[in-house]
Amino acid sequence: MFSKFSFFKKSSENTLEEITQTADSMCRKILSEHLAHLDLDINYRYSTKEAVEELGLDDDLVHQLVEDYVIQIIKSTLLFEQHLERLQAIKDTNQELDFTSFRELAHKNLGVARNLRIKNAEKILYELMKQEDIEYLKICLEALKMCSVKLKPMCAYNTLKLIEVKSSL
Q: Of the N and C termini of the chain, which has fewer Cβ atoms inside 10 Å?
């Protein structure tokens, strides 16, 4: 069974600095040990320059859109995990797997990552769209979460706190 938001649940008890350090170390570990074949940049630092130049958008607007993307990924995580749980249950009963809903969610998020030129996220989301190995998809999803937190740590922290408050009501 999945431990929904396991990193995120632990994160809500930690400081921003602790969350950032944990996300960075987990991201590095996953990218180097499990996703090395994707040639992802372990030291990736997002820059708005490419999105600003190619899309003709203001730098502040691109930063806001990246924050929106981080919020979207954090919220989408629950849906991704629900899809994977459902797929695992179907697999356990030897039925035919249908990845359509999972892939549609990955495609939606991939479009945003592509538009904003978030390189590592593009590659990971592409893997989420194309692969069918559930264990591998779990690894990709974990990498996506950690890389998203690294993009805008304060935004991620605030989103996690808000989710925590909402879920306690």
A: C
The upper half-sphere exposure of residue 155, i.e. CA atoms within 13 Å in the direction of its Cβ, equals: 19
Yes or no: say if 80 and 102 are a contact pair by the CB < 8 Å rule.
yes
Which tokens is 41 given? 């940049």
Reading the chain (169 residues) residue by residue, the pLDDT tens digits are 334 445 555 555 678 899 999 999 999 999 999 999 999 999 999 999 999 999 999 999 999 999 999 999 999 998 999 999 999 999 999 999 999 999 999 999 999 999 999 999 999 999 999 999 999 999 999 999 999 999 999 999 999 889 888 888 7
**CA-to-CA separations, 9 to 17, 22, 121, 143, 160, in angstroms, rounded:** 16, 13, 22, 16, 8
